[in-house]
Amino acid sequence: MKKLLLPLLLFSLNAFSASVIVDNPAALTAAVAKAKPGDVIYLKDQTWIDAGIQLQGKGTARQPISILPQTPGGVVFSGQSYVQLGGEYLLFKGFHFKRGHSPKREIISFRINNDILASNCRVSNIVIEDYSQPERFKTDSWVTFYGRHNRVDHSTFVNKLNAGPLIIAELDDERSQQNYHSIDSNYFKGRQRFGANGGETIRIGVARYSLSASRTSITGNYFERCNGEVEVVSIKSGENKVSFNTFYECEGGLVLRHGSGNVVEGNFFIGNNKAFTGGVRVINPEQKVINNVFYQLKGINFRATLAVMNGVPNSQLNRYFQVKDALIEKNSFISCESILFGTGKDAERTLGPENVSFKRNLIVTDGDQAFTDANNNGGIHFSENALGVDFRGKIPEGFSKIKPSTISVQGIELPYDAQYGAELKRMPFIRKEQTGAAWYKPAVAVPARKPQHFLVTAARAGSIPDLIKKTIAGDTLILTEEGTYKMLEEIRVSKPLVIMAAKNLKGRPVLVNASFKSLPAFICIENGGDLQLNGLAFKGTYQSYATADGGIRSTDLPMNRPYKLTIDNCEFSDYNESNNGAFRAGKSTFADSLVVTNSIFHNMSGAGLDLSAEKDDKGFYNAEYTIVRNCSFSNMLSGAINIYRGGNDESTLGPFVTIDHCTFNEVENREQGTVIKLVGAQRASITHCSFSQSGQGGRSIQFQEYRWDNILVDYCNFYESGKVESFYNKAMGSNNTFKKLP
């Protein structure tokens, strides 16, 4: 008799449930509105384009209203589709968002409007990819939490490109505070460097409401190479728990930015000795960091393995509250670069951490320094900690030296001791395969053909723009003749291409404007474009035709994908009007790398390389890496290189600037002029360069740096040239020469 009870019970619960198949948004909205607890609404397997969907219904804990595709992944939302959930106990599961972007502030929202929030609703087993705003700085999120007790789980999120955290939990009124949301078992697959603030993967709360408790749980997720900015997970509220996640090769960390009473427990941070990989940054009172593993992390300062910040006296909500009463216990730090107490200490952040307990941790390093305390004011209490036997320095108070055993975790041999460090034998380390949408198989792009070479004679120069439209990624255009290539319009590059001179030519092919209309540039890099140039010349004026305002530029149109530009053995000359120059980066565009080698810049009124379009002073900049090597700049009215990153935002790594073995002759001699201007470059090296009769009215080199920036000028010669100027006067190496010509 008892064996019959369970089937009968299940039958009684589902006897009155209904299911329906819908094939358009209006039918779906209507079906959910009249659905009863336990009902299932199936969306017809197809591509739903520009579907704005509002789902409001009321299920129960045992009988939610389920919204499903006919088969998992069978429904693709594209175009400008979005979904808003309102009501109680709705399950939205198994959908695919791709090839589009939302017209709203979010793709999936746990509210329909300010009056209709969601509670106890679940979004599960979905995939969002290729769904970024086309404009880089247009802000949105992919999922935004409102209400209470909502969940996102077992979903896959791939490489968000535009501004805004991927997932946000809002606490903007009491109905969304103390919310107990859950973000669990998800796979966050990459996020490229954004080059500005706003590249977080998850943000819980915001400074304005940071004194409120959120009580959100972030558990069992896998973060792979989430490199958007310094904060991979940004906690800006109180009483949250971030536990048992894996952070794999992420250039940033888990940051307790605002709020108090948060717990970071049982996470695995894997750096694999990759530069800039970070761990946990602690700010504000009563935070706990316990039982985590930090493995081969190489970040420093704000990306340190453990960064315990200095605070600001009488801090505003959006700055830095003092760290007080923190517990850092039973963590394992294995072959990591930096543990830093007093991170960010400067003229503003003067309050050192207070009453921080650093207890029963294990540090395994072959270095001679276990940690750095920038304050040394007694605010950190060390007790019962251990150092591995390979430690080469003086053993600090509160530490002893031990020889731990080892245990294998996901193929990694980790030092282990039952008394010190993380409890490795009891931790549920999360693998990538345990997370994300089970049905999802990434598409493999198959090109229509193999990349080809296209030969272009000077007589066919005008056909190059049309030929570019017929190319595929990886194709090469070879200019076969030296001499003049008469261009009638700008070349627009929106895919990875190579444009080069044929080998063994005695002179370069020279691009000139042969129309009576000015060209913005000879080449414009558009969204999706990468470009390699070799052996070409770009001449700004030609006979009595209109000018070309530049050699190369990045687009003024919306761009969200970083591009790469490589210029080798090229010549830029005769840009003689206004600000015309060789290369100009447009506002809201971002280069992963600009590499210029073995090239000549001369006779121009504008800058040689101008990456100064981001003047909003919000920490934005135009290129992550700028490398200029073995190049010559001469007879230039404006500066040779101008790179700008204004503001004091700490979220980003770059710009990185390398200028090596270059010559500057008669460049920028106007009053207060600057030959090389680097504003806000966080890492810059100018070496083995020669300045002759350049910057005479001002500066050869100007830095505007912050105290933690790493800048260097060394092995450079300055003949009848301007000074080198930096804010902290720490740029100059010991091998520079300043001389006046006889």
TrEMBL record:
The keyword Secreted does not apply. GO terms for molecular function: lyase activity. Keywords: Lyase, Signal. It holds the Pfam family Chondroitinas_B. Residues 1-17 form the signal peptide. This is Poly(Beta-D-mannuronate) lyase. It comes from Pedobacter africanus.
